[in-house]
Amino acid sequence: MAALTESNPLVAMGGLPPFSAIGPAHIAPAVEHLLAEGRQSVDRLLGQDTPYTWESLVQPLQALDHRLNRAWSPVRHLHSVADSEDLREAYNRCLPQITAYATELGLDERLYKAYQAVADGNGFEALDTAQRKTVANALRDFHLEGVDLSAEKKQRFKAISERLSTLKSKFQQNLLDATHAWTKRVTDPDQLAGLPDSARSLALQAAEREGVEGWLFTLDLPSYMPVMNYADDRELRRQMYEAYVTRASDMGPLAGRWDNTPLMEEILRLRHEKAHLLGFENYAELSLAKKMARSTQEVVTFLRDLARHSRPVAERELAEVAALARELDEVDELQAWDVPYYSEKLRQRQYDLSQEDLRPYFPVPQVLEGLFQVISRLFEVTIRPREGVDIWHADVSFFELRGARDVLRGQFYLDLYARPHKRGGAWMDECIVRMHSRQESWEPVAYVVCNFTPPVGDHPSLLTHQEVNTLFHEFGHALHHLLTRVDSPGVAGINGVAWDAVELPSQLMENWCWEREALNLVARHVETGEGLPEQLFEKLRSTRNFQAGLQMLRQLEFALFDFRLHLEYEPERGARIGEFLDDVRREVAVVKPPAYNRFAHGFAHIFAGGYGAGYYSYKWAEVLSSDAFARFQESGVFDRETSRRFLHTVLGQGGARDAMELFVEFRGRAPQVEALLRSSGIAT
Ligand code: ZN
């Protein structure tokens, strides 16, 4: 194994990953080697007879972590963008080993005590902000993992955690099975009226696959959504709606077959007990331990405030939909399955603008040039391509980001186009995290990945405005990662950032692609070279806030339901899921769903994902980004003073300081919901 290790590119790596040299066979030996080395080093660090300090304990631990991450990041990345059977096998084999290693360290009492000794030691106050925050976060995380509990409580804590992970995956499984168990077959082509061709051919393919005549609709979103938005047949919409909103519940066509009710009851009970063991009043409090919001009351007030302001607007929007339904089809009573359908009709009537109309104005080379200019003007950096870097596919390009006096600040890979063996969607991921210590220095490196339509021949790829928006969003994440000034990797860039604040830079950056001044840099017609005409620009702007009130209330209904469910849980009274849902709907919903609606039974974000008592984060981050952008609007969207301040607070200090503190330092005050209400057109 020694021979293999020395020539293993994942172990020997001294800079950027040598992608062309990394093969599936390197992965398992490298991971085994690095984990074994990690375990030995931890033991050695803990066994030393000098007192534990930043330099003797935390910095070497961070360096170990950094090394493991540098090796694992290209593997994780290749698994996402250039997958193969061998690679997937190696990845799936190693991932549990890495997770187990992290869990092991997170539950190591010796480590916990050593960190505690660093925090209590003489030198602690002399550490810089980022170093102190690194230690504080570590202690917090040990506590949240139950490391400091008594032996008996620890055992119970472990049992709860294991049971919860079983329940979560069972919930997801039920939902999946229920989603796939129901289909709707249509044999009369008249019933397809209104549906776009793409939806019809999807249904035709599904029928062919099942070997049945006609068209087959399923509850998967690509099949379900077009029916709700476009199908003229009201009864078809009603049936699909009923099946969809009763999945995995005691109601609907498959009532009771995959009923999630008992799982939800148990999840809520165990979460409450877990929170109690750790000294919190309830699970909502526990959820906030790693978030920017400071108290449960603050979250509830925040959501209710938004709802109160949005409700009258949503009511007006719903009345417009109802009026159109009456006008077109003499619908007297608008039902839940009518709302998306007539909303779509309304949207078409109000704005005859399709995403396709804008494509010629957004050829990729122009969009990139414009985006880089926007970033340069804002943050005083230059972005230049660098040739000769080892990449994983011919489509990939590589760029350097340099600041004042041409100093290298960071680098990034750009992989824009869809292709086989590449995961869908768009994302930013860390390749290398910034770390500066006495022993070594690393500047940050990012991957920015999208799935745009590839260019054909000499014709550049043309983007929709939605895709341009996505690109700006991901560059917001990338700038957060690349422009950090923090030297300790645990809190550099996006690391250690409260997760209800982590979307602030990304959502903020989106705003520029809706601004005339920035679009002048970004948009240029692929053939004529002319900028985006004023009339198209106005149309584009007006589509941005279509039905903002209804959309807002829908998200608030989910968020408030999730939060109150966890906050107001009482063991003697059980979960009271239906009760809370009814109550929240009375308070915030304007579209009244039928009594059989079991939305909660399919709410995987909170029952199977990581969003329990955290769904509010979506709206929270939107308020932050709207309010931050409002500061730019007040002084000009390219105002140097404002962008410099953002650079030196939120971007530059990442997770090293409290997210609220950084926001206040940037904005001069705490965030205000009015900014979001104004930017979404709800308040004027
Ligand atoms: Zn994002």
Q: How large a portion of the residues is in β-strands, by DSSP E? A: 5-15%
Reported for the largest beta sheet, the result is:
5 strands, mixed
Q: Would you identify the regions where 5 or more consecutive residues have pLDDT less than 50?
A: none
Output the radius of gyration.
Answer: 27 Å
Q: What is the count of β-strands?
A: 9
The N- and C-terminal alpha carbons lie at a distance of 68 Å
Mean pLDDT: 95
Query: What structural class is derived from the secondary structure elements?
Result: alpha+beta
Shape: globular
Helix content: 55-70%
- Specify the number of helices: 28
Strand order of the main beta sheet, please?
Answer: 3-4-5-9-6
Bound molecules: zinc ion
Overview of the structural elements:
This protein is of the alpha+beta class and 684 residues long. Helices cover 57% and strands 7% of the residues. It has 28 helices and 9 strands. It has helices at 2-6, 9-12, 24-47, 54-81, 85-106, 109-120, 129-144, 151-181, 197-210, 221-230, 234-245, 261-277, 283-288, 296-329, 339-350, 355-358, 364-379, 465-482, 504-510, 516-522, 534-543, 548-567, 577-588, 604-607, 617-635, 640-653, 659-667, 674-679, and strands at residues 183-186, 215-218, 382-385, 397-402, 408-417, 427-432, 435-436, 441-442, 445-452. Strands 3-4-5-9-6 form a 5-stranded mixed β-sheet. A hairpin with a 4-residue loop joins β7 and β8. α18 (465-482) packs antiparallel against α19 (504-510). The longest helix has 34 residues, at 296-329. The protein is globular. The N and C termini lie far apart (68 Å). 40% of the residues are buried. The protein binds zinc ion (ZN). Residues 473, 477, 503, 506 line the site of zinc ion.
